[in-house]
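To the structural biology subgroup,

Please find below the input and predicted structure for D-galactose/methyl-galactoside binding periplasmic protein MglB, which we are adding to the shared reference set this quarter. The sequence is reproduced verbatim from the submission form. If anyone notices a discrepancy with their own records, reply to this email rather than editing the shared folder directly, so we keep one authoritative version.
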Amino acid sequence: MRVLRKVTAVAMASAMVVSMAGCGGGAKETTAAATEAPTTAATEAATEAATEAAAAASEAATEAAAATTGDYADKKVGISIYKFDDNFMTLYRTELERYLTEDLGFKKENITIMDGKNDQAEQTNQIDNFINQGVDVLILNLVQSSSAPSVTDKCNEAGIPVVYINREPDAAEEQRWKDEGIKATYVGADARQSGTFQGEEIAELENHGDANGDGVVSYIMVQGDPENVDAQYRTEYSVKALTDAGVKVEELLKQRGDWDQAKGQQIVQDALTQFGDKIDVVFCNNDAMALGALAAIQAADRKVGEDIYIVGVDALTEAVQNVMEGKMTGTVFNDHISQAKTAADIACDFLNGKDVANVNMVDYVKVTNENAQQILDIVK
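Predicted structure (tokenized):
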């Protein structure tokens, strides 16, 4: 069982009762199973207090920054993002840079953020350059999570700690860091939880997602990169939540969309042509693909909430707005704010010589029409 450092969503910090990390202090470690999700009651209580909790989280972050034990003005941070034109990672890296400079005191000129261009060879060259330049810590959003072992070994040999974000290496690699005392860690969110929330958003509908009333929820799955663990788990657990609720399901199509809005639109457009009214639900592994899927649904004169349902993940501003307006059934808040802050805080922990858990998780939050405005106030 992995040891997780659980960090609640920034907007839900006070309600979810989870310890949040700060550079000057550690975070409470838990041995909860990675598949644990907050109860519906806890989620509802959390969203009711979203605005107050966001303010509390902001204050906590300020206090954490003030409590840091190191001077980071001359510390160099190398950051590589798998590709800059990913909607979610744009939000993430913007918050990461802001928090490092405004709250933690790193100089902007000492923070280098590179675009991996969705090319592992390109990103590997960037990492090699960071190592040659002697950066003090690396924060990496890998193009291919399977490259983590070789990247980790390079960084370890150079004496540079590495914080992996968003794309999780496999459990064996994470365990190796712990067993061998390697200064490497992963900060992210358990994708099983996000998939479960997607399925619950459908299962909790009055008709359980059976839009055409034939007794079976027939769905199409617009998947991200199948190698990516988030895509794998969101695909599996969204459907599992339906079957666990006793809903009979039928997969009509599962197709790779690479997290891309245009690809999501094309996949759903073709599926609607092929399957027509048989499609009850469109599951999308992220909101970018969901926004593309929505465009295809609207072009086909289908109406979300009446004859079809659609859910995504990330809580992009446009997606949350669509949930508020009934144009999307739901999404799941992938808390880039807490994740970015946690990644930066843990980088500080490494610089301060502190012990760091090998896996650090941030909770997702289910987003429906009932709490969409509160989430929008946070993400916009």
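Summary notes: Residues 4-65+72-189+334-379 form a domain with the Rossmann fold fold (CATH 3.40.50.2300). The radius of gyration is 20 Å.

Regards,
Lab coordination
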